[in-house]
């Protein structure tokens, strides 16, 4: 994990100044020669976390590969807003096939490159949470199992946003979506089993798995470039707030992403070959309420009377993440992070 | 056209037998077509193999309903499946068994067909002896060659060796030769069909 | 080289000679021997350079082929029946994107009820998907069509499916001449893609196209297929020139030029049909046959020319459109519009039921003696008694049970009868 020995904070935000750093340590986004792989003119909503995440991700990947990159994209917001006929904002070779097959298409591209001996060209597959975890899950798992040389990036905005904000397996408990309305005795999404994509990726023992958010640009870029150092199947899961779908202010996208991490609701870590090798600690822990309140998809929890029972359950989930992944500084990090994670139960460490 | 129907169970090499017969005929410069019918792939289920041999190109694709020869690799099928259905009056029958037709309960066939063309041969026992495994298909092809003369023993042997290399092939060939001898001694010189 | 080999094996060798660079395969009966043989050839290096992808489903198989083809690699896959349906979304995607993938479909019935045997319901269900559909009459033709398919696909940037009857052809051992590598290389040049994912010249493939342009893009698919109607005979002629035998083309007539009655069919049943035609001709009846080799695009002019003079056309097909009747017969009727030809729709061979020479003789007799109604589907060899019993069962009460189980109990097996 990259260390930042100097912390400079600009007033009103937590952005770290690039100008004070060595040129080599500056972010890809800070450089004039960045690829602008997803260039301007796309039709994403104001404050779209996915557009931000995709730009960071692909520019970092292009830097890591010297621009020798091909992308396969699932159907979804990113695909739709980036290719409004007759324009395209992609400045790399890019293919969109179907909703459920981005990992398979990427596999096919990688195979073709291998057959042709074009070993310098790398492949990225990408999609949203729906395309990756639900309808595309079999394809994703197959790609992992074969260890195909593909970096797959999931932009997780926690619902099927492109089609109008319907619930996906990534939708968190209690969140309102168009199919988990804030009506009835239990408004919002159920407290289900969840589908922990990064842990599932780790269970496939692929070379590299990481989570990241759009709040920490340097961390996300690092993880993409790190992923490109490996060959074989790699998975990066990027948390990308969706102002429209979540009912948060478009200027708050980065703040929402930071809050998701600082509450413990979205653990940020990286793993190699099935074992956690690094965890991004929570800097200043905040209660989940601070994260939930600014989002209208949780507004039904804050009526009169407030659903403190639900909020407490959400908080318990955050607490569990903190425990499982050792997200606070004073937690002892177990040697084998994954084994510790797997040994945890709801009753506490065994 | 000479049509052969082979009955057996999954795992006994019925499909292979039909194929080897077709290869033997092909090697003699004739046209041949072999194909199976079977249910889902599992051991023990009844399997039928077909082989057509002709001097002209073979165009039909239907199962053989009026065989000129029937080979029964597994006598437990005799009373379970209609193995003799459609057998031509001048047809040949070769049953894998140590017992006689009478003992197998199908002695009445000798009244309906030409008795000298109905033969049993202990192919499984010959296979055990020469190959070390109870796989009767190659032996039965040797017996078939002797019974009908439709293919020569040499062609059968070559087909076997082409499919099974080394000692496995040799063992099968020995079993085929042994069966040929046994059947030939029963029927005399093979009459060309 | 001429040898006595299994159809699947012959096709695998032919495909290998075409130098595919990516083979993505998921096993399904009765295609398994094809993909197994190709897997071995890649493993041993006999087929190289080639990447063989052991994908987790047919949907993945076609998707990987899409990615590979878009990257400029010659891509191949094979499937049948349920597998074809499972990849259907990707099948449409491939033709919509104009990727020259070649796929073997080992024709097999579509369930329910689950059935592994041969009929044409699988590829017929995809007749409108935008792929070119070629039907092989024999294993030799199956081999030849694959060579022609790659050439055709790449010339047009349209995917092509080669249909061969499952089990009947795939598992039949007969003589086949598989061309040598030199012969294939001379016939099929390396793949030069029209569009390719290339960092040196980036393109966007698969963008959303709205009402402003969708119709035009779709029309181009149609235009390319119509162009195939010219190209297919050209390629068949080239093939004939290079290999000394005729294979493929749009249609193939057999003793039909002076025939009053012509039987139309696709695939392997044509062999049996030709045999019956010869036998019936010996009785002095002017009968012939027409094989449709290319079903999509539909060679309407060639079919009209071949059948227009007949009094009766008997369309014998191994699939049907539930709720209407024959599929091929509808298409044939289209070709004969305005002509005084009686068209008989005969559905036969469903789920692998054998089409026998005996049944075909009976059918011909029924047609000639006016016992068949033109335009109404005739189900050849259907057991009306079984159907009647099930209908009666249904009328007796609501909870009559699954059709398949009831009928199978009625049918029983020989072993189940006392002896």
> For this structure, what is the CATH homologous superfamily of the largest domain in chain C?
Thiamin diphosphate (ThDP)-binding fold, Pyr/PP domains
Give a short account of the largest sheet of chain B. 6 strands, mixed
Strand content of chain C: 15-25%
Structural class of chain B comes to alpha/beta
Keywords:
heterotrimer, A: 350 residues, alpha/beta, Rossmann fold, 8-stranded mixed β-sheet, 12 helices, 8 strands, globular, C: 419 residues, 3 domains, 7-stranded mixed β-sheet, 6-stranded mixed β-sheet, disordered C terminus
In short:
Chain B has 193 residues and is an alpha/beta fold.
Descriptive account of the structure:
The complex is a heterotrimer of chains A (350), B (193) and C (419). Helices cover 33% and strands 12% of the residues of chain A. By secondary structure, chain A is α/β, with parallel strands linked by helices. Chain A has a single domain, classed as Rossmann fold. Chain A has 12 helices and 8 strands. The relative contact order of chain A is 0.12. Chain A has helices spanning 49-64, 77-82, 102-115, 129-134, 137-146, 197-203, 217-227, 243-246, 253-263, 288-292, 308-325, 337-343; strands spanning 69-73, 94-96, 122-128, 151-156, 208-213, 234-239, 269-272, 275-279. Helix content of chain B is 37%, strand content 19%. With 193 residues, chain B is α/β, with parallel strands linked by helices. In chain B, helix 3 runs antiparallel to helix 6. In chain B, strands 2-3-1-4-5-6 form a 6-stranded mixed β-sheet, with helices on one face. By secondary structure, chain C is an alpha/beta fold. Chain C has 3 domains: 2-243, Rossmann fold, CATH 3.40.50; 251-379, 3-Layer(aba) Sandwich (Rossmann fold), CATH 3.40.50; 393-419, no CATH class. Chain C is built from 15 helices and 16 strands. Chain C has helices at residues 7-17, 32-44, 58-70, 81-86, 88-97, 121-125, 139-156, 181-187, 214-243, 269-281, 300-307, 328-335, 357-368, 384-396, 403-411, and strands spanning 2-6, 22-25, 51-54, 75-79, 102-107, 132-135, 160-165, 173-177, 204-205, 251-254, 261-265, 287-292, 294-296, 312-317, 342-347, 378-379. Chain C is globular and about 70 Å long. The model of chain C is unreliable at 413-419 (pLDDT under 50). Strand 2 (94-96) of chain A pairs parallel with strand 9 of chain C.
Outline the fold blueprint.
The complex is a heterotrimer of chains A (350), B (193) and C (419).
Chain A: H1 49-64, E1 69-73, H2 77-82, E2 94-96, H3 102-115, E3 122-128, H4 129-134, H5 137-146, E4 151-156, H6 197-203, E5 208-213, H7 217-227, E6 234-239, H8 243-246, H9 253-263, E7 269-272, E8 275-279, H10 288-292, H11 308-325, H12 337-343
Parallel strand pairs in A: 1-2, 1-3, 3-4, 4-6, 5-6
Antiparallel strand pairs in A: 5-7, 7-8
Chain B: E1 2-9, H1 14-27, E2 31-37, E3 46-54, E4 69-72, E5 92-96, H2 109-112, E6 118-121, H3 123-131, H4 137-148, H5 153-163, H6 166-187
Parallel strand pairs in B: 1-4, 4-5, 5-6
Antiparallel strand pairs in B: 1-3, 2-3
Helix pairs in contact in B: 1-4, 1-5, 3-4, 3-6, 4-5, 4-6, 5-6
Chain C: E1 2-6, H1 7-17, E2 22-25, H2 32-44, E3 51-54, H3 58-70, E4 75-79, H4 81-86, H5 88-97, E5 102-107, H6 121-125, E6 132-135, H7 139-156, E7 160-165, E8 173-177, H8 181-187, E9 204-205, H9 214-243, E10 251-254, E11 261-265, H10 269-281, E12 287-292, E13 294-296, H11 300-307, E14 312-317, H12 328-335, E15 342-347, H13 357-368, E16 378-379, H14 384-396, H15 403-411
Parallel strand pairs in C: 2-3, 2-4, 4-5, 5-7, 6-7, 11-12, 11-14, 14-15, 15-16
Antiparallel strand pairs in C: 1-8, 6-13, 10-12
Helix pairs in contact in C: 1-2, 1-7, 3-5, 7-9, 11-12, 14-15
């Amino acid at each position: 994990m990259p260390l930042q020995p100097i912390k400079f904070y600009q007033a009103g935000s937590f952005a770290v100044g690039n100008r004070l750093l060595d040129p080599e340590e500056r972010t890809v986004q800070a450089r004039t020669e960045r690829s602008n792989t997803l260039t301007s003119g796309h039709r994403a909503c104001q404050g779209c976390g996915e557009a931000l995440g995709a730009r960071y991700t692909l520019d970092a990947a292009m830097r890591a590969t010297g621009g020798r990159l091909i992308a396969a994209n699932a159907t979804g917001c990113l695909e739709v807003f980036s290719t409004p006929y007759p324009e395209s904002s992609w400045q790399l070779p890019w293919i969109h096939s179907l909703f459920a097959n981005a990992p398979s298409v990427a596999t096919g591209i990688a195979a073709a490159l291998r057959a042709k001996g074009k070993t310098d060209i790398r492949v990225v597959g990408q999609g949203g949470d729906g395309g990756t975890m639900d309808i595309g899950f079999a394809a994703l798992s197959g790609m992992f199992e074969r260890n195909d040389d593909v970096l797959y990036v999931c932009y997780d905005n926690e619902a099927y946003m492109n089609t109008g904000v319907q619930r996906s397996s990534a939708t968190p408990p209690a969140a309102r979506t168009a199919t988990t309305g804030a009506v009835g005795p239990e408004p919002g999404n159920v407290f289900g089993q969840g589908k922990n994509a990064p842990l599932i990726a780790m269970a496939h023992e692929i070379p590299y798995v990481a989570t990241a958010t759009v709040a920490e640009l340097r961390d996300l870029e690092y993880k993409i470039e790190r992923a490109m150092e490996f060959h074989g199947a790699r998975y990066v899961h990027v948390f990308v707030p969706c102002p429209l779908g979540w009912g948060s202010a478009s200027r708050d996208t980065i703040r929402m992403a930071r809050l998701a991490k600082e509450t413990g609701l979205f653990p940020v870590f990286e793993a190699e070959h099935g074992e956690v090798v690094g965890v991004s600690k929570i800097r200043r822990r905040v209660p989940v309420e601070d994260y939930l309140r600014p989002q209208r998809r949780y507004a039904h929890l804050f009526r009169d009377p407030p659903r403190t029972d639900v909020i407490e359950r959400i908080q318990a989930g955050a607490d569990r993440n903190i425990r499982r992944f050792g997200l606070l500084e004073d937690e002892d990090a177990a040697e084998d992070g994954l084994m510790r994670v797997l040994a945890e139960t709801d009753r506490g460490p065994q | 056209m000479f049509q052969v129907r082979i009955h057996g169970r999954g795992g006994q090499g019925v499909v292979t037998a039909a194929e080897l017969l077709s290869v033997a005929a092909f090697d003699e410069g004739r046209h041949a077509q072999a194909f199976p019918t079977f249910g889902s792939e599992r051991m023990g289920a009844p399997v039928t193999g077909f082989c057509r041999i002709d001097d002209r190109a073979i165009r039909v694709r239907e199962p053989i309903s009026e065989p000129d020869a029937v080979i029964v690799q597994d006598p437990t099928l005799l009373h379970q499946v209609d193995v003799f259905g459609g057998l031509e009056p001048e047809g040949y029958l070769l049953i894998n068994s140590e017992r006689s037709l009478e003992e197998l309960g199908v002695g009445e066939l000798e009244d309906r067909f030409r008795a000298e063309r109905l033969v049993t041969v202990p192919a499984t026992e010959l296979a055990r002896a020469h190959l070390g495994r109870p796989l009767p298909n190659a032996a039965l092809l040797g017996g078939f060659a002797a019974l009908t003369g439709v293919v020569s023993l040499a062609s059968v042997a070559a087909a076997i060796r082409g499919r099974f290399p080394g000692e496995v092939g040799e063992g099968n060939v020995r079993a085929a030769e042994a069966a040929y001898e046994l059947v030939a001694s029963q029927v005399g010189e093979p009459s060309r069909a | 080289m001429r040898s006595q080999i299994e159809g699947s094996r012959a096709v695998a060798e032919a495909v290998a000679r075409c130098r595919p660079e990516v083979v993505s395969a998921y096993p399904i009966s009765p295609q398994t021997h094809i993909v197994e043989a190709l897997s071995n050839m890649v493993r041993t290096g006999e087929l190289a350079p080639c990447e063989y992808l052991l994908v987790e489903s047919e949907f993945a198989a076609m998707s990987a082929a899409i990615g590979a083809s878009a990257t400029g690699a010659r891509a191949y896959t094979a499937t049948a029946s349920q597998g074809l349906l499972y990849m259907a979304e990707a099948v449409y995607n491939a033709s919509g994107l104009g990727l020259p993938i070649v796929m073997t479909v080992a024709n097999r019935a579509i369930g329910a009820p689950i059935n592994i045997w041969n009929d044409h319901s699988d590829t017929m269900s995809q007749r409108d998907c935008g792929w070119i559909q070629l039907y092989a009459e024999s294993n030799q033709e199956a081999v030849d069509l694959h060579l022609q398919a790659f050439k055709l696909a790449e010339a047009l940037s349209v995917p092509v499916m080669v249909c061969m009857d499952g089990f009947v052809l795939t598992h039949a051992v007969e003589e086949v001449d598989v061309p040598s590598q030199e012969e294939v290389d001379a016939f099929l040049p390396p793949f030069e893609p029209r569009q390719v994912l290339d960092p040196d010249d980036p393109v966007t493939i698969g963008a959303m196209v709205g009402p402003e342009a969708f119709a035009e893009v779709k029309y181009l698919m149609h235009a390319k297929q119509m162009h195939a109607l010219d190209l297919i005979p050209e390629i068949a002629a080239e093939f004939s020139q290079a290999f000394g035998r005729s294979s493929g083309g749009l249609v193939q007539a057999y003793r039909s030029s002076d025939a009053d009655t012509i039987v139309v069919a696709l695939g392997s049943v044509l062999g049996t049909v030709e045999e019956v035609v010869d036998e019936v001709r010996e009785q002095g009846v002017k009968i012939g046959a027409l094989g449709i080799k290319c079903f999509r695009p539909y060679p309407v002019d060639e079919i009209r020319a071949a059948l227009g003079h007949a009094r009766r056309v008997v369309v014998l097909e191994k699939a049907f459109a539930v709720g209407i009747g024959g599929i091929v017969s509808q298409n044939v009727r289209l070709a004969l519009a305005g002509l005084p030809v009686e068209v008989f729709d005969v559905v036969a061979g469903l789920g692998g039921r054998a089409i026998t020479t005996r049944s075909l003789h009976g059918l011909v007799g029924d047609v000639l003696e006016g016992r068949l109604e033109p335009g109404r589907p005739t189900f050849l060899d259907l057991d009306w008694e079984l159907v009647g019993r099930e209908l009666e069962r249904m009328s007796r009460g609501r909870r009559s049970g699954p059709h398949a189980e009831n009928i199978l109990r009625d049918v029983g097996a020989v072993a189940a009868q006392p002896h």
